[in-house]
Design a protein that fits this description.
Keywords: Glycoprotein, Glycosyltransferase, Golgi apparatus, Membrane, Signal-anchor, Transferase, Transmembrane, Transmembrane helix. Its main location: Golgi. The chain is α/β, with parallel strands linked by helices. The protein has a single domain, classed as Glycosyl transferase family 29 (sialyltransferase cstii, chain A, Alpha-Beta Complex). It has helices at residues 2-7, 37-41, 58-61, 72-76, 78-81, 99-107, and strands at residues 22-25, 45-49, 67-70, 91-94. It has a four-stranded parallel beta sheet.
């Protein structure tokens, strides 16, 4: 429990905020057929799925991220798939059924 407290905030980061508009962005290649980056970034909340890269695709998928939904595979390579910005709040939600992977992530965290 001590290690888990190192990675969890003391208070919910977005409580009691309510958001008017929300964009949920997957990792489909079809997003590269459009240039919705500015439109996506205009939403109050942007939820990104599976750690799809955004750095080289900003004009297509935007750069704003509020929540990241990660599966076990994405969480294993967290440093490669998620580009966290230290200047803003971003929340990671990791779905895993294998506890040893989550424990390794927590024990490897410096914060």
């Amino acid at each position: 429990m001590e290690k888990l407290s190192l990675v969890l905030p003391e208070t919910p980061p977005y409580f009691p905020w309510q958001f008017v508009r929300c964009a949920v962005i997957g990792n489909l290649g079809d997003l590269l057929k459009t240039r919705f980056g500015k439109e996506i970034d205009a939403y109050n909340v942007v939820i990104r799925e599976s750690g799809a890269p955004i750095q080289n695709y900003v004009e297509y998928v935007g750069k704003k991220s509020t929540l990241w939904l990660l599966n076990r595979g994405s969480a294993k390579a967290l440093d490669k798939v998620v580009e966290l910005d230290e200047e803003r709040w971003e929340v990671l939600i990791v779905k895993t059924t294998i506890h040893d992977i989550m424990n390794k992530m927590i024990s490897g965290s410096s914060n």
